[in-house]
Give the backbone structure.
Amino acid sequence: MDKMELLRIWCCLVIIFVLSSALAEYLVRVDQFNFEVEDRELIVSQSTSIEQDGNRSYLSGHLIVGKPINEISMLASMDISRPSLPRVRLFATKMDLCSFFNNDYKSKFVQQFYNRYVNFINVRPRCPLQANVNYSLQRSYIDERILPELLPECSYFLKLEFRNKTKHLAQVLISGHITPVASKVPTPKFRVKF
Ligand SMILES: *[C@@H]1O[C@H](CO)[C@@H](O)[C@H](O)[C@H]1NC(C)=O
Ligand SMILES: *[C@@H]1O[C@H](CO)[C@@H](O)[C@H](O)[C@H]1NC(C)=O
Ligand SMILES: *[C@@H]1O[C@H](CO)[C@@H](O)[C@H](O)[C@H]1NC(C)=O
């Protein structure tokens, strides 16, 4: 390999890196963040709030359970919609929350969820969840990296349903607006001339 060839490879790598990070950029605004409790004996206290600050929406809240929980599953789904077009489901995934708290899931997608939410909680949650501990989330935000590339401007609806084997316990609804910020970028082969 001569120097020119190395330089060429290096340039391509840099450009691919820059493009792949540019393509994933979105502004994600949250307009709604609700925690709906089904089982009031289990979930004794909770709150949610949104703070709009610059281009980010920060989510805070707290949760206190009345008895220890050692088995709970979460169904996460996300839909997007555009004016006068039907809703499209981006993903629906079910996970065991205790394994999630232990960070046992190896999928990159789930780990991004973990890093974004679990790290923003004051007490690291572990199963069984403790009764009468105030688990609070401070200024967390939607991680743009969980979104696929090349989404159009759209509204989104994220739903997290919590249940055990027999009962629906609660659900979290988050919705708002996604705006891509990187304008259309040409692919490297059109952009680089040697
Ligand atoms: C918000 O994002 C837009 C588009 O990327 C940018 O031009 C603007 O400077 C940002 N504003 C703040 C307060 O970060
Ligand atoms: C739980 O913690 C949050 C955040 O620190 C606080 O706002 C809330 O009042 C607390 N709730 C209770 C019942 O202690
Ligand atoms: C599910 O939760 C409900 C309400 O807290 C409880 O009565 C029931 O025993 C739980 N079921 C299992 C299998 O843990």
Notes: Residues 25-180 form a domain with the Ganglioside M2 Activator Protein; Chain: A, fold (CATH 2.70.220.10). The pocket of 2-acetamido-2-deoxy-beta-D-glucopyranose (ligand 1) is lined by residues 27, 54-55, 181 (CB under 6 Å).
